[in-house]
Amino acid sequence: MFGLEKPGRSGGFPNMACVGDFNVLSSSIPATKVELSVSCRNLLDRDTFSKSDPICVLYTQAIGNKEWREFGRTEVIDNTLNPDFVRKFIMDYFFEERENLRFDFYDVDSKSPNLSKHDFLGQMFCTLGEIVGSQGSRLQKSIVGIPGKKCGTVIVTAEELGCCRDSVLMQFCANKLDKKDFFGKSDPFLVFYRSNEDGSFTICHKTEVVKNTLNPVWQAFKISVRALCNGDYDRTIKVEVYDWDRDGSHDFIGEFTTSYRELSRGQSQFNVYEVINPKKKGKKKKYVNSGTVTLLSFLIETEVSFLDYIKGGTQINFTVAIDFTASNGNPSQPTSLHYMNPYQLNAYGMALKAVGEIIQDYDSDKMFPALGFGARLPPDGRVSHEFALNGNPQNPYCHGIDGVMEAYYRSLKSVQLYGPTNFAPVINHVARYAASVKDGSQYFVLLIITDGVISDMAQTKESIVNASKLPMSIIIVGVGPAEFDAMEELDGDVVRISSRGKFAERDIVQFVPFRDYIDRSGNHVLSMARLAKDVLAEIPEQFLSYMRVRGIKPSPAPPPYTPPIHVLQTQI
């Protein structure tokens, strides 16, 4: 029987997920990593004289093409319909990407690694966001795939790996460094590198320069353990010491190596390092060193992460606001940005779907308020900058992204595109809700899709400055060929947005022009995945900045729940 080897050994299988497997191959810092645990209840019984011997195989789907690739396999558990698999799947997690997953289950009948030689027990499809966004980051779904049969249920739990979240606060000083400057002493600074699997080094921190001293004390600095050693405590960390020169040709004083494990001993005789200059050492017989560097303090801090809040039950509420101004063009004409093409989505529909499909995984009721602005409404033709797309001002909620799309198309047929382009009313609409729940249990994301030139800039800035104190973020997608200079100003990445002398407390606006994501080859799947990635990438940090400023800690996650095992009476 294969799969009986100890968890953690790969037993001849490609890409086996191992307990505590950690991918140290990539020199780029991964997103946070999550560990997926899989259990099943009431699997199909395919064996005549005993119960099934199940294995779980995980597949992931590349963005842009629909091809499924095997990610890994669990061990085989003999003779059970209720397996709790020991071997975990460890995956990179990005909030801003949609990671499609497929779990296939087989009853293993021989030692062959070829899955077609074993009995198929069914499968389950989901996204990584769906697992993480479920209560307690625990998703329970029915297994499907065999017509007319109840295939049981699967429970997948996501746990964020701890080593991704630690930061360290360190301080160093040096003694008797080599004098490098003709007039005066050296101006020393330190450069830290983490080593990669191939022996190369990647820079991860530079200290400030301390002027005119051979005995500098540098300021304490904070760095994530991921950046310092990619979570591998015994990996080499190289530190180079330089004398700063104004022209950029900094003089090399010397270097030393250490590791996270050594540094974590804190201030002690083990953490006084000789600074060695290999060239000098090779030339001078009496060379001892070029000074010493001493670790003064080492403090580990565990950062709370976006996932801690999601796991503790914080809901992300998604609202969409669509620009119905006349500058979009007549929806019945192909040149219009609102053109209702029966064969493909228009720019508004594509942007809405790209962003909404990812965010909806974090909203448990999947009910989204959908608003329009800049149109004349039936029956009397009054202009509105805050109307419900579903025609119900008391209840503007639509079910799922598909419900929002449906309401959008219905509105196009009933309202008259008009103007002007006012953002403040829809921002204030969401802000009213956000102001009523400031305890960290809910966070609001407003997606505004617009063709551009804004008419109420002063009011919008005022609304954004006020909203920056609330649990909300604003995403603006600009469609069409207009100049979007005003939007860049609202984005506030270069200059923090202000209104009447008051600056925004935090940066809450992210703007992207849709035209930057049009794929000339027509591969909209890939280009929309890039759009979603870019507009959503800042949300977790904006979310955390609100929680930090308010001192809100994540709620404790609900206790892990293992579903009961139902013993099925089988007829003999």
Automatic annotation (TrEMBL):
One of its GO terms (molecular function) is calcium-dependent phospholipid binding. One of its GO terms (biological process) is cellular response to calcium ion. CDD domains: C2A_Copine (cd04048), C2B_Copine (cd04047), vWA_copine_like (cd01459). Keywords: Calcium, Metal-binding, Phosphoprotein, Repeat. Residues 10-141, 150-273 form the C2 domain. InterPro entries: C2_dom (IPR000008), C2_domain_sf (IPR035892), C2B_Copine (IPR037768), Copine (IPR045052), Copine_C (IPR010734), VWF_A (IPR002035), vWFA_dom_sf (IPR036465). Residues 317-518 form the VWFA domain. The keyword Metal-binding applies. The keyword Metal-binding applies. One of its GO terms (cellular component) is plasma membrane. Gene3D superfamilies: C2 domain. Belongs to the copine family. Probable calcium-dependent phospholipid-binding protein that may play a role in calcium-mediated intracellular processes. This is Copine-8. It comes from Galbula dea. The lineage of its organism: Eukaryota, Metazoa, Chordata, Craniata, Vertebrata. The gene is Cpne8.
